[in-house]
């Protein structure tokens, strides 16, 4: 019996990394020993105090039952204090903060709360693939706005303003930007808020990377005057506190908008595991020494990853923020897919092709910093002879190539 799939999934494929991780697992099962520099899943542990809080919480009577949909008052209070301390943003923990099972969940909740057929949504090209997926699933029309290296990977708001924005209801923005690592300053965020206010567009700012390898204080869009009227902000402890698998995110902004998202969310899931909430409170209380130690590790790794990319003839841009290095591929490769395939085949190292993030990323690859230095050194060693082999392919017959 054939069961048809809902039309809402017609243009939405399986997430790229879901497919790719299966492929890499099959190669590893066959003995390939792939070094995966693709996905940005932190390999470092949380702070010991955070793990201790989780363990202690799990022994409490009643800790394993259903939890409230809005999170505990203690967690919301810790999130509000975190925003005040790091961003200078005052939030009412009673109504302006909604804990999430990861910010990816929040993207879906926002799309299903505010978007429907007939609406249009602006998404970045290149940008996080989930932005497109949630917009398509909601039934809205997807409109890309171009980002490019020449403009610092910032949108041309004046050019956007000259287009028909009458049906645009929502704009997804993400700074520091993934995959390019570009940062936005306060002046640009101020322009963005003015643009949204002028065109009656709801901004959704996805902000999980501000604490990783950022040489300036992290910024919140909600700190911009007037932003509360037109913006919601997603944030996460996945990258900043090494809690990716714990699924701790948050949505911040106007209480009435948060309440509408809660209306959808409360029908889709239950509250976060109580010991995870208690551990998140401990994580949010960590001081600057936590981020200093974390970034010292990532800084050393970044030098190795840049060396690896340069060995492949790629050009990493300076000043990138976050867990990745974004680099232009050399002209002898058609695009990032071709380079990624070649390096995987020849060196057993996986790099993410930039084209998965949109057409403006096709000439790039992205490498993750989420591997220990020893693994990154091995990847660099593997790549060095692979470069020579790749250059020799045009000169040697198939019989002459090493096996």
UniProtKB/TrEMBL annotation:
Domain of life of the organism in this record? Bacteria
Q: What class of enzyme is it?
A: transferase
The UniProt keyword set, sorted, is: Aminotransferase, Transferase
Q: Which PROSITE patterns match?
A: AA_TRANSFER_CLASS_1
Tell me its cofactors. pyridoxal 5'-phosphate
EC number(s) per entry: 2.6.1.-
Q: Which GO terms describe its molecular function?
A: transaminase activity
Transferase in keyword set: yes
Q: What is this protein called?
A: Aminotransferase
